[in-house]
Amino acid sequence: MTLAELGPYLALILVGFLPNEVWRVMGIAVVRGLDENSQIIVWVRAVATAILAGVMAQLIMTTSGALAAIPLFVRVGAAAIGFAAFMAARKSVFVGVLVGELVFLAGAWMYGP
Amino acid sequence: MSSSQPRPPSQPASASFLNGLLAAFKSVFFYVLLGNYIGISALAYEFGFSLTWMVFCTVLIWAAPAQVILISTLTTATLLEVALAVGLSSARFLPMVAALIPTLKAEHTRQTHLLLPSHLTAISVWVEGMRMLPQLPREQRISFYNGLGTGLLSAAVLGSLIGYALAARLPPVLATTLLFFTPMAILMSSARNNQTLIDRLAFGLGLVVGPLLAAQKVKLDLMWTGFIAGTAAYAVHRLREAMR
To answer: Per-residue pLDDT tens for A38-62?
Structure first.
């Protein structure tokens, strides 16, 4: 392997792996000695859940990747219809995702780039 | 008499690991990740990365949003900018791992034994793990979680392989549709799994606050989303406890 070929792997470690992994190790460090029922953990769990919801909402609504090429109403509409199908199918994630994806595909086909 | 009675043999770690793997294969996330990583790998192909690089990327980072950022910026932005963007998108792992560890560890768990589970943590693994772990004896939890994480990670690796092979033939509309898998599945699993008031409030508020802050172009918007929505949910939870 030449240095030029090594480049993308070095970049992967330095600006991909490390900036990600450091948070995980810090997560271990900050909870040393705390147990499940401590109030800090209850709060931290609420914060983690809220961040997760924020990530998901942003992926659907304010995404900057390839999804951004699909109009907002298609993305939100597909998520809403998928969610309605999920509720109608007694909270089946499988049914909800399938219906949402089909609506998204149809919408992307009609209104996409 | 009770002290002389032999304890029932506890389950070996390999059996717990296997149970975790099986749980991964049965999880809807196995198929969601497969689909999602077909989309991400097609993106990597488009940006000229090799298949080996893409597999390493998945195993080493194991976070779809960070990987999408890395792949789409590495060829154009400066390394410092890329590192910052990946780092900011990954900050959620601190509270996620911090919330996971107390549920995961047993009384005498060594710190080093927590490194693998924390690396295997992804949103999907965390959501499934937090749901399943409380039903297991403490000494089985780490092996189970490692199995669960390995199983779901293998779906992502498999998806990466398929995505790369299909990339040239995959219409862009279809590749984009695949990227929509993860947010949809997380949304619904969370709606199904969040049973307590504090979880539901935190998730519901996060859904509203996240896009609002992003639209205002607030810096560190996800951290603020977590702090504001999480603290509000916690406050309501405490208030209700106090009124009981």
So the answer is: 888 889 889 988 988 888 888 788 7
Residues A20 and B63 sit within 8 Å (Cβ to Cβ): yes
For the residues of chain A, what is the DSSP string, one character each? Answer: --HHHHHHHHHIIIIIIHHHHHHHHHHHHHTTT--TTSHHHHHHHHHHHHHHHHHHHHHHHS--SGGGGS-HHHHHHHHHHHHHHHHHTTS-HHHHHHHHHHHHHHHHHHH--
Distance, in Å, from the CA atom of B160 to the CA atom of A47, rounded to the nearest integer, reads 31
| Cβ contact A50–B121 (<8 Å) | no
Of B72, B119, B221, the CB nearest to A24: B119
- In 3D space, the residue among B13, B27, B14 whose CA is nearest the CA of residue B155 turns out to be B27
Residue B4, φ and ψ in degrees, nearest 5: -85, -10
* Chain-chain contact of B102 with A50 (C-beta, under 8 angstroms): no
| Tens digits of residue pLDDT in B79-114 | 888 898 889 888 889 999 999 999 999 888 899 999
Confidence band for B3, pLDDT divided at 50, 70 and 90? very low
Residue A112's closest chain B neighbor by CA? B173
Q: Answer whether residue B48 shows pLDDT above 60.
A: yes
Distance CA A24, CA B97 (A): 6
Residue with tokens 């979680």: B145
Q: How far apart are the first and last CA of chain B?
A: 43
Is the torsion defined by CA of B211, B215, B217, B218 positive or negative?
A: negative
Q: What is the pLDDT of residues A57-101, one digit of tens each?
A: 887 887 666 777 888 999 999 999 999 999 999 988 889 999 999
Q: How many CB atoms lie within 10 A of CB B240?
A: 11
Single out the residue of B131, B232, B132, B235 nearest to residue B190, CA to CA: B131
- Which chain A residues have a beta carbon less than 8 Å from that of B66? 16, 20
